[in-house]
Amino acid sequence: MSKSRKKMPKKKGEGVLRGLAYDIRYNPYLCIMALPAVIWFCIFSYAPLVYLVAAFKKYSAVKGLWGSDWVGLKNFEAFFGSKSFYTVTYNTLYLNLLFILSGMVVSIFIAIALSEVSSKWFKKITQSVVILPHFISWTVVALLCEALLKTSNGFINNVISALGFERINFYQNADVWPALLTFLKVWQGAGYGSIVYLATITGLDQEMYEAARVDGATRGQCIRYLTLPLLKSTAIMLFIMNIGKIFNGDFGMIYNLVLNNTMLYRTTNVIDTYVYRMLVESSNIGQSSAVSLYQSIMGFCIVLATNALTRKLDPDSALF
Amino acid sequence: MAKKNKEYTYDAKKHIKMTGSDRVMNMGFYLFITIFSVICLIPFLLVVGSSFTAEKALTMNGYNIWPSEFSLDAYKLVFVSGDIPQAYLVTVGTTLVGTFVSMVFTCGAAYAMSVKNFKSRGVLALFIYFTMLFNGGLVANYLLITKFLHLQNTILVLLLPCFCNAWNILLMRNFFNGIPASLAESAKIDGANDIVILIRIILPISLPGIATIGLFYALTYWNEWYKCMLYIDSNHKQYYTLQYLIQQILRQVNYAANQPAEAVGLNSLTLPTYAYRMATIVVAIGPIILLYPFLQKYFVQGLTVGSVKG
After folding, report:
1. CATH number at residue B226
2. Of B71, B97, B130, which residue sits at a domain end?
3. DSSP string spanning A102-121?
4. Quick check: B26 and A116 in contact, CB under 8 A?
5. Are B30 and B124 part of one and the same domain?
6. Is there a contact between B9 and A45 if contact means CB atoms under 8 Å apart?
7. Helix axes B121-133, A12-26, angle to 10 degrees
8. Which of A54, A61, A176, A203 has minimal CB crowding within 10 Å?
9. Would you state the pLDDT for residue B260?
10. DSSP H or E run through A70
11. Residue A1: is its pLDDT beyond 50?
12. Domains in chain A, CATH or no CATH each
């Protein structure tokens, strides 16, 4: 259809404008349809970038952001020099790595199990059930956890003491929290994560399995030598995508579960919660935005690095 | 088509004889799935069970799946006590309005990006995709909303910042990409414009996509607490959402737990009762659980279509 019209020019920058001019002229309705989203992204995604200057200022409420004094990299120096820098960076990376790996393993396991199960109604019901926790907000989960975990009369501790063990005081013991958070993350996300793997498995060529079965392979062997290797590229792609987000702590989860329980900060304070607490509790806008910027830049670098890596390993899975 | 394929799989598996090890494995899989499902389900059962239990029984025995002493007191309290009905109204309202506007924005941009003849589609995709890679972070957004847009303490702060989601738009575009271009082209020859084509032809056949993305948006509005916490102060309680009320309850409980024993006695009067907490959770997640079975078949199908590439 478009062949009869002018061809796109080769130069890139010029091409963008020409393309836009072309669209305004020949696709006015498509332009109108895309406009609300474009405006929204300009305001809510691109305009905030301007406020990143706060990271280089000593914010004063009286002078306002633009009138505040420049301090260069002082805000960053203060953060990098503090002990919190190591703690929050370590916690963010460590917890996210735990979440990613355990989530991946359990998701793949669920997907394989669901694909091997032959009863249709069983598969349908269990799949619905394991996905369900994904849709529940962390505020609800946190309130539930409080009910389940509290030392006196909590469901879990009642079970523990019924089995003859000592009750665990979860809310004063920071060391159990990485494991506990990982468990909750798997509980909440593994079923949902299995959808993609299950889709990959159902999309596999079934004749391959038949051939293997006819040749005498057991189902275990089919999984070991067919399903798992074929899932590898999906798994690697999702893994890399998740690694790209490794600098973003799960604020909703950790903040709601821990709230202001300082006893748990040692193992649970991630960059996101650190920034929030600094912003709200100490109103330190300069330094909190410096930490925020540090997080954005590190996150961006990680995405670029992982993408470059994917490009090398498997060009088809690269995101851009 | 996918369905046919599945049935075919089952047949193939049934027709080939199972060996002993296969049987053991099969049992293992059933067992694993059952256990994981039970772990997923137990908390919900505990909540529902406890919400129907009399407070006395709860303080004595803790939470239980089966109410030892049936009572509806908690629900009476939930539905008459000041905060929750109002919060429900806010949550339902923002969810309905927000999801609708979000879908309009999302479908518009996603459809434009899926039309091959739209020259700016690549630039538009990059423009949207970039926001997923680099963003201003919490503080920059906070400053924008409070110092420039002055949205704090208005109902708009629960709506405007959530209208678009880069990931959802790209996912929606992938759905639209899967629709043969010939459909839209034939309508175009008949003289329909792009908006009419989208509404009349494209949307009716992208139901799984709409259900999936719509559900995602609805959930972000329904589960909203973060913006309430950041932008709405206690003088504007009329804008609190349900999820934020739950967080408030959580804060009170935590606060009381960290007080010395004698102080708790004084505070316990204001502390929400156990059954009340559970009943609040039930009304907060009830609609999701009720709607879920209807949408589930769509979004499993919908998610599998959208393997996103930037």
Report:
1. 1.10.3720.10
2. B71
3. HHHHHHHHHHHHHHH---HH
4. yes
5. no
6. no
7. 120
8. A61
9. 60
10. strand A69-70
11. no
12. 10-35 (no CATH), 75-317 (1.10.3720.10)
Same domain for B52 and B82:
no
Nearest-neighbour CA in chain B from A319: distance (Å): 6
| Whether residue B106 is found in the same domain as residue B26 | no
Range of the domain at B221: 72-310
What are the pLDDT digits (tens) for B168-189? Answer: 998 899 888 888 888 888 888 8
Q: Which residues of A touch B253 (CB under 8 A)?
A: 143, 146
Q: Give the list of residues 6+ apart from residue B179 with CB closer than 8 angstroms, or none.
A: B114, B202, B205, B206
pLDDT in tens, B242-261: 999 888 888 887 777 766 65
What is residue B222's predicted lDDT score, i.e. its pLDDT?
A: 93
Quick check: B106 pLDDT over 50? Answer: yes
What's the structural domain count of chain B? 2
Whole-angstrom distance, CA of residue B57 vs CA of residue B63: 9
Inform me whether the C-beta atom of residue A191 falls under 8 Å from chain B C-beta atoms.
yes
| Lookup: tokens for A35 | 């406009």
Would you call A146 and B254 a contact, using CB atoms and an 8 Å cutoff? yes
Task: State whether residue A111 sits within 8 Å of chain B by CB.
Answer: no
Kindly report, residue by residue over A81-121, the tens digit of the pLDDT: 888 899 999 999 999 999 999 999 999 999 999 988 888 88
A33 against A162, higher pLDDT: A33
Domain boundary among B71, B88, B119: B71
How far does A232 lie from chain B, in Å, by closest CA?
A: 15
Chain A within 8 Å of B219 (Cβ-Cβ)?
A: yes
Residue count of chain B, please give it. Answer: 310
Question: Nearest-CA distance from B169 to chain A in Å?
Answer: 9
* pLDDT confidence of residue B26: 85
Q: Token pair for residue A314?
A: 């498997």
Q: How many CB pairs lie under 8 A apart between chains A and B?
A: 315
Would you call B140 and A54 a contact, using CB atoms and an 8 Å cutoff? yes
What is this model's ipTM?
Answer: 0.86
Mean pLDDT (chain A, rounded)? 86
Statement to judge: residues B35 and B113 lie in one domain: no
Q: Do B139 and A285 touch (CB under 8 A)?
A: yes
Contacts of B251 in chain A (CB under 8 A): 259-260
Shared-domain flag, residues B64 and B88: no
Q: Are residues B66 and B99 in the same domain?
A: no
pLDDT at residue B2 in the model: 43
Residues B141 and B239 in one domain: yes
Per-window interface: A 76-105 vs B, CB < 8 A = none
Residues 172-211 of B with CB under 8 A from A: 185, 193-195, 198
In the block, residue with structure tokens 């090890």:
B21
Confidence (pLDDT) at A203: 80
| Single pTM value for the model | 0.87
CB contact under 8 A, A34 and B195: no
The residue in chain B having the minimum alpha-carbon distance to the alpha carbon of residue A136 is: B285
